Amino acid sequence: MKVRTRSSAIIGALVLAASLTLTATLTTASADEAQAQVVLTEVARAQGPSAGAAGPDGKVWIAERAGTVRVLGDYGLGEPVLDISAETTTDGERGLLGVAFDPEFAHFYISYTDLEGTSTIDEFAVQDGELQPDTRRTVLTQEQPYPNHNGGDIKFGPDGYLYIAFGDGGSGGDPHGNGQNLDTLLGKILRIDPTGGDGTDAAPYAIPSDNPFVAEEGAKDEIWAYGLRNPWRFSFDAGTGDLLIGDVGQSEWEEIDWAPASSKGGENYGWSSMEGNHPFRGGTEPANHVPPVHEYDRSGLGCSVTGGFVYRGEAIADLAGSYVYSDYCDGTLRTLDIENGEVTGEGDLGVQGGEVISFVEAGDGELYVLAIGGAVSRIDPA
Ligand SMILES: [Ca+2]
C-alpha cells in the first residue's frame, strides 16, 4: 500500500520519538478500514459515455458525449431518450458533458457545448419518468474562448440548488486570469435556483439570496466557489453533504478539493495563482487559498483527475464512507478517507477502469464507472 511505503521511508529518516508518533497515526488510520475487495462488472457498452445521473424508478441515465442520453436497463442501454447530436460537437473537450435530475425528478438538466462552443444548460420537465421535449428551455449559457476546459458537470446540492462547474475557459495556464476573477463565471462553481426565475429570457433562473458574492460589487452573483482550472467532475457526499471537486491540473499537480456541508461558499481554490499546493508560474498564494485535501503529481501514470463520489451504497461494506476517484490516463480506482477535511487514508482498489471519464452514483448508492472507450461498469464486491 502506498501509505505504508511512504511511512517506511519517512520513518527511516526521522528520530525515534517522531517516528513512533507517525506510526501510531498511520496504524490508526489503516486499522479503521480493511481494504475493500471489489470487481468491475461491465453492465453496458455506450458510445463515448461522458456523464450520468440517478433517474426516476431507480434507473441510471447515461449521457453519451456526441449528444444522446440512454437509460440503463437490465440488459444494457435502451434507445436514446434524448438526441441533441445535431446541436453539439465533440471537437476539443466539447460535447454533452453533464446531466442531472432535480431531487423530485420533476426536471432533467443537460450541460453541453453548442455548435459555437458555448456552454449551455437546458431544462426539460419530466412526467411519469419521461422527458417532455416540448418543455425544453435554456437556463444558462456561458461563452467559451477555447475548446478545452469547459467543465460542464452539473449536480443538485443537498440544499436543492443546481451547482454548475465551469473551467477557466481553456488554452493553457489561464491566459485571461479567469480563475481569480470574480467578474466571470469561468473557473468557478456556480449555484442557482433553476426554476426560481419568472420564466422569461430576462430571468431564466434565480440566484439564492445567500450566495456568497451577491452583495459584492463586480462579482458575479452566481458564483459559489472560485479558483478552479477545470473542475471536470464534482459531487456531494450523499451521507454528509460535503462537496468534493476533482480539479484537473495544468502540468504538474492533480487535486481533490473539499468543502464541508456547512460551507457558506466563497472558497478560493487557488488557480491560477496556485496549482495544487504550489505557486503556479511565480504566483503568490492568495491569503484565502483553500488548499486541496489531496494532490498527486504526474510522476506516475496519472495526468487528469476524474472526481468521483463518496461511497454510500450497501453492497461493499468496507468501502463505506470512502471517496472513490480515478484518473483519465491512469484508470486505477483509488480511494481517500477524509475526516474533517483531512485525508486519513489513501487506498487503491486494485481495479482498472480504462480511460475513466466519469462516475455515476445510482439511486441505491452504488457507483458506476464510465470509460470513454465505451464501458459502463458497476463497482461490485469481489
Ligand atoms: Ca487548487
TrEMBL record:
<dbReference type="InterPro" id="IPR011041">
    <property type="entry name" value="Quinoprot_gluc/sorb_DH_b-prop"/>
</dbReference>
<feature type="signal peptide">
    <location>
        <begin position="1"/>
        <end position="24"/>
    </location>
</feature>
<feature type="domain" description="Glucose/Sorbosone dehydrogenase">
    <location>
        <begin position="53"/>
        <end position="370"/>
    </location>
</feature>
<keyword id="KW-0732">Signal</keyword>
<dbReference type="InterPro" id="IPR012938">
    <property type="entry name" value="Glc/Sorbosone_DH"/>
</dbReference>
<dbReference type="Pfam" id="PF07995">
    <property type="entry name" value="GSDH"/>
</dbReference>
<dbReference type="InterPro" id="IPR011042">
    <property type="entry name" value="6-blade_b-propeller_TolB-like"/>
</dbReference>
<protein>
    <submittedName>
        <fullName>PQQ-dependent sugar dehydrogenase</fullName>
    </submittedName>
</protein>
